[in-house]
Amino acid sequence: MVRVPIKLTIKSLLELQNEGKGATLLGIGPMSSNLLQASFELARDYDFPLMFIASRNQVDMDELGGGYVNGWNQHSFVKAIRDTADETDFNGLYYVCRDHGGPWQRDKERNDHLPVDQAMELGKKSYLADIEAGFDLLMIDPTKDPFEVGKVVPLDTVISRTVELIEYCENERRVRDLPEIGYEVGTEETNGGLTSTETYETFITRLKVELENKDLPMPTFIVGQTGTLTRKTEQIGTFNFNNAYELAEMASEYGVGLKEHNGDYLDDVTLLEHIPSRVVATNVAPQYGTEETRAYLKLAEVEQRLKENGVIEESSSVKDVLLTHAIKSERWRKWMVGDQTKLTIDEIIKDDDLSAEILDIAGHYTFNDDNVKVEINRLYDNLNKVNINGQRFVVDHIKRPIRDYVECYNLKGSTSRIIDKLERSELVPMG
User: How far, CA to CA in Å, does 32 sit from each of 241, 352, 395?
Assistant: First the structure.
């Protein structure tokens, strides 16, 4: 299939919304190779575009600390995606996207309270690696300022840093004569609540003036808070249809799509509201990691029963190793609520229920740890001996929640609708 820039795909979706043929795209956090496989197989079978959204903590340059997902840097991440597309005979549309790029977006940079100049330079260095690796969309996010703790970063600051970063990326892209890329921007950090329509419109109109003055492109997406919020392994927010609709309508007037974050664990009723609310895309990430963890635990339970029945001699230690590494990672803290964010490791270890909860939340952060990989392979080997394909089960298990979104977001057949729309508009770039 011909490669279509993400900006054209979103342009066609905005037009298809007016024809009653729209869809809400799914931005998938790339938690593992198994998730890549599950995504490509579903997108192949159901004919919809894929967006893989990698944060800097997940995927980044080796010299900046790399990422916790498979140790991928930008180039190895793109290669893994391309290889998986080939292995699954996928011939549709897919986009490699930077989620939350920019200054202080690595936990260490923020915790170290790096000065603004240094944080901006590291953000730019990471973006350059994104561009050179072939990313299709970059999220420009200067809203995690450690010097504005507990406060929203001033709009003037967000706009000036956003324009500076887009200008840098566009200059580097043009110098290298690389294809057009899309940009995603936002007015504030997505920690729940709602984005007011007044703030949203002010941001769009002022950003448009600044970008035009510098001959820079308008963004492809503008993030708006629709009320969604993920904590633990639950959706604790409340989707606000009217707010989402107003933000989406406002964005579409500028040829831009409304992007929603924190879209994990949404129920079917809420998912179905997304098409009439005209949300163009939703990001989902930790839910799919949790789904993979649960798949491993189910296989470990099967393995244990087989051992008790004398079918296998020695079981793996998948559950224990996953649990130990998940607790010690401390990455679960960002998903906890209230005083639980301050729990000590010893307190968790002594509480079986709390330990199980932490494993559910943070197991996926450990998939690339050497000890975990060894035990997963032992688990697979034990099950293969009794004709259970463990890896196949894990991939299919991950598909379950993705399929819910595909069905409710009207994604089935959406690639064909997009291509047809672009061909009728004579906008599909040939060659």
Answer: 32, 27, 10
User: Is the pTM higher than 0.85?
Assistant: yes
- DSSP string over 107-158: HHHHHTT--HHHHHHHHHHHHHHHHHHT-SEEEE-----GGGTTSPPPHHHH
Q: Which residues, other chains included, contact 37 with Cβ-Cβ below 8 Å and sequence gap of 6+?
A: 84, 87, 88, 395
Q: Which two tokens stand for residue 343?
A: 């729990």
CATH topology of domain 6-284+410-424: TIM Barrel (3.20.20)
Handedness of CA 194, 197, 203, 207 (dihedral sign): positive
Q: Give the pLDDT confidence of 16-63 residue by residue, as tens digits.
A: 999 999 999 999 999 999 999 999 999 999 999 999 999 999 999 999
Indicate the average pLDDT of the chain.
95
The first and second tokens of residue 42, run together, are 């579903």
Q: Using alpha carbons, select from 158, 133, 140 the residue that is nearest to residue 148.
A: 158
Query: Could you tell me the two tokens for 2?
Result: 């011909």
Listed in order, the ranges of the chain carrying CATH 3.20.20.70 are 6-284+410-424
Rg (CA), the chain: 22
pLDDT (tens digit per residue) in 305-324 = 999 999 999 999 999 999 99
